Amino acid sequence: MQQFKVISDSLNIRSAPIVDDTNHLAVLPKSHILSKIENSDDDKWWKVTTIFKGKTLEGFVAHKFLSPVTIFANKTIIDIGGIPIRQADGESVFFYEAGMSINADGAPNAYHPADTGIDFLENAGHSGNWWALAVDKKGNPFIQGSSDPYPGYYISTTALFDSGFVNQDPRRYVDSTKIPYIVLPGNDNFRKVTGVKLGDFAVAYNINNEKLAFAIHADIGPKNQIGEGSIALSQALGNDPLVRSRVRKGIPKDIVYVIFPGSGNGQPRKTSEIEAETKRLFEIWGGVERIKSL
After folding, report:
1. Which among 20, 76, 237, 292 is least buried, having the fewest CB atoms inside 10 angstroms?
2. Strand runs (DSSP E) across 23-116, as ranges?
3. Residues 68-114 pLDDT 10s
């Protein structure tokens, strides 16, 4: 799709190519980026689509208030551990390039009392501070029972969860082995600047093999680190992180992450939903061609 920016102070987008009080959809601010779909029967109007407040929006605008975008003016909005977090003028989408360390949290077989899970127990915390395990009121980790997926294992948690299940139910959390998810820093300034929330959608692109994956923001990591994903996300990008059935192998560099703030609903989602929602946002943003131009 060809992309344009708003050159007037603001621009109304409408559900039909006519000025009417009943068809007003939103007011787009100056410099906002949108994509042309097609001409209208009335040559004053174009049918367009855009990402507005994290959601896809489709309608009609008067094209005289648009200018083609040939070069995106990207700026660094914050730095996390030496990784610049960048954003184009007129957009809420942000992106960065980093490696990918692997987060097994949420997988029911992630951690075991005898440290025989797919991840090492030290990554879940320690007595008195189990940051990646479901615990009782005394801080003791729950153990999965006979009706759970992995009896005898601990219950590993993620920051994003399904409130329809109780704390000690493994189904409450986002399974790293099944769901492609990203981890973003627990940094208040980062979240304020980017506007990102748990449940928002993201794209990860492996520069080396050109593999693309769609993901959800499901967990929170250290405030000064960025570049982390689930087992399922790593595998979708062509890297199997499991060596002798344990998480040992991340991706050292060359992963581009594109994040869509406001795109989620704060809930875990099925892989099919993540792919469908994110693919639409990614195509409007510019797709792989735009990633290659960064």
Report:
1. 20
2. 24-29, 33-39, 45-52, 55-62, 66-68, 74-80, 83-88, 94-103
3. 998 899 999 999 999 999 999 999 999 999 999 999 999 999 999 99
